[in-house]
């Protein structure tokens, strides 16, 4: 019976659970990429549509705040948009890994690209977080005022848009972890 | 002759160059970790010792700037110090990979820890970069003034200390790349 099973092309006993685990990892990889896309896309849209005009104005100045007033927030939107595009483009490769769970070269490529994208997204998100912190708290030593006292809803929206980006970073970190585990099990 | 060579415990012909390449990668890994340690340690020290007292003062205020005035710079120092400690602690594992180039589990662990540390270092460095940019250029819309016009040498030193950190990020990115390649060749 055992010889017959091996002749019929079934994998040996110890290889079968390995393939199953790697296929499970690949499926999780696919789902998590979609979660990350939702996070980064949401961040990009939430930040990119943020502006607030205060209901009072003087003769010379109309108090208006938009994300594009701060270059760091522009970088945040660009970083999130690029990572979203990358994650969508990486989905076919993720599907390929579900079908062919023993793939090595493509997994290596994906680890490297994921790492680069995670670094890029982290830099955008933490630079924006530093500015958001400054907007909330200000800095008395540098004489930078907390603009959130005036632009309240602007600040809330900007702070909220960071969340999706940090979810994206966490998911990318887990994706690299899973890819490394799958690669070491091959 | 060929049988004799295999009986003497030598690896088969196609495995020998693989091991040699992996050993080469492991040696490069060790050297690059030392480069990264120099970068991040230099950054932490350069930022941590930065302060400037201006040569003039009024009756009430003495103009003094230190890195600890800005919480982001404190985070930068802490992040660099932690990554330096991690890199030094990872050196024995790197030596172990030179000796035993076929190791898989430890390489996987190192990829995951390297990735986490890279994300941590990137967040510290880019948050600091965002604040340094603000200190140089200011922001007229938010009414934040460019403090670098007064604290010139403070700003130069702070900007310079970012360099080591970004070198560390690049080296960690390459370390992850090399580890992934070595893992996929095993």
* Low-pLDDT stretches of chain A: 1-11
Mean pLDDT across every amino acid position of chain A: 86
Our measurement of the CA-to-CA distance between the termini of chain A, rounded to an integer number of angstroms, reads 28 Å
State the major sheet of chain A: 2 strands, antiparallel
* Main structural class of chain A: mainly alpha
Spatial arrangement of strands, main beta sheet of chain A: 1-2
Number of separate structural domains of chain A: 1
Taken in chain order, the helices and strands of chain A follow as HHEEHHH
Largest interface: A-B, 44 and 44 residues
The rounded Rg of chain A comes to: 23 Å
Strand content of chain A: 5-15%
The total beta strand count of chain A reads 2
Multimer state: homodimer
Helix tally of chain A equals 5
Membrane topology (chains A, B): Multi-pass membrane protein
Transmembrane segments (chains A, B): 30-48, 75-99, 111-135, 162-183
Protein name (chains A, B): CASP-like protein
GO cellular component, one term (chains A, B): plasma membrane
Task: Describe the overall structure.
The structure is a homodimer of 186-residue chains. The radius of gyration of chain A is 23 Å and the shape is elongated. Chain A has 186 residues and is mainly alpha-helical. The first copy, chain A, has a two-stranded antiparallel sheet. The first copy, chain A, is 73% helix and 6% strand. Chain A has one domain. In chain A, strand 1 and strand 2 form a beta hairpin. Chain A contains 5 helices and 2 strands, in the order ααββααα.
